[in-house]
Amino acid sequence: MIKVALSVVLKAKPGKEDDVAEFLRSARSVVDQEQGTRAWFALQFDESTFGIFDVFPDDDARKTHLSGGVGQALAAQGAELFSAEPDIKNVDVLAYKLPGEGD
Q: In the sheet that 39-44 helps form, which strands lie side by side, from edge to edge?
């Protein structure tokens, strides 16, 4: 079951777009280790705007994810890669469809 999510919007500094894309690609291996993260997506909206959308069964799993490896890496590399603080929003999930669920 999935009840909550995170929506994160990231604005890359000029000239850092490729670095942000690679940072997000490499974050996958960290997220793969998180049992509470049910689905995770790294997104690119336009040349300099990126995002993360991930879903969780409950708020405890969401909090664990935020304090985990990707959250720590965002904090550590934020000043170098991003032109603004990440815009992190807690989201409630109303409905969803994932592979293997209800197929």
A: 39-44, 49-56, 4-11, 87-92
